Amino acid sequence: VLGALLRGDGLLVPSGADALRCARDLGAAKVTLTPSLLAAWLRADPQLPASLPAVARWHCSGEPLPRRLRDRFLARRLASQTLVNIYGCTETAADCAFAVETAPGRCACGGLRALPGATVAVDGGEIVVRGKTLALGYAARGDLVRPSFDPPDLGAAGPGPRFEAASGALAFRTGDAGTACAACGAVICGGRLDDVVNVHGVRVSCNDVEERLGAGVAVVVRDGHLVACCEDVEDARRRAATIPARYRPAAFCEASPLPRGPTGKVDR
After folding, report:
1. DSSP string of 186-237?
2. Distance CA 232, CA 229 (A)
3. Which stretches of 32-151 are DSSP H helices?
4. Residues 80 and 253: beta-carbon distance below 8 Å
5. DSSP class per residue in 7-19
6. Which of 26, 36, 223, 259 has the greatest count of CB atoms below 10 A from its CB?
7. In CATH, what is the architecture of 200-254?
8. Domain named AMP-dependent synthetase/ligase: which ranges (predicted)?
9. pLDDT level of residue 146 (50, 70, 90 thresholds)
10. Lowest mean pLDDT among 42-51, 164-173, 245-254
11. 124 and 113 in contact (C-beta within 8 Å)?
């Protein structure tokens, strides 16, 4: 909202069902949407994003951007269209890292770089943020402050950005799984840490399974087994046959369409 107002642009917040039509009819120059909603748009209009030439800037935020979805978008885009992957949360005043997916020479890892004024690093497999926009804590919830906001020594060796160990400034532990790319040092977001489950003694990320099975799939755990809720069960089954056994759901059920919240995220 503030980005549009600061630029002097008009701002439109349509309902989910009307968003694609409004972007087309009103000649929007920029859209901001979740990866789940972008996937739904690409299914609704196989010519996207080229069929919306006026939309030069496509910003994805709110969820990890699956590599398959990113590649599908890039294969269809016009040269004038830019895809930006944005990372952040409420505790960091929304955005704190980004990646211009259409930048020349971009590393294939899909990693993120911190915005000016922020530092984004990985500690113990968790993404940690420090910087000027960081919140001081949670109002009237002191019990939540210590586990989430901490001034740890994060000067450990390894690829990617790191904090100065002696700074003592607060850092926010996001609860998001992360790794640092050994080639370029960018931070790669792997979804929520609580999204990682133990199935028959093997640690599996539901987000990773969903990416392997394609768009329109939500993976949940029921009675110790992975269950794939799919908009297209047969397509998900075909994809599952090509991936390692530990990622294969024990059951598939049809859920078309998947239930989604107002931002397009799947409501598990």
Report:
1. -EEEEEEGGGEEEETTEEEEHHHHHHHH-SSEEEEEETTEEEEEESSHHHHH
2. 9
3. 35-44, 67-76, 142-148
4. no
5. HT-------GGGH
6. 36
7. 2-Layer Sandwich (3.30)
8. 2-138
9. low
10. 164-173
11. no
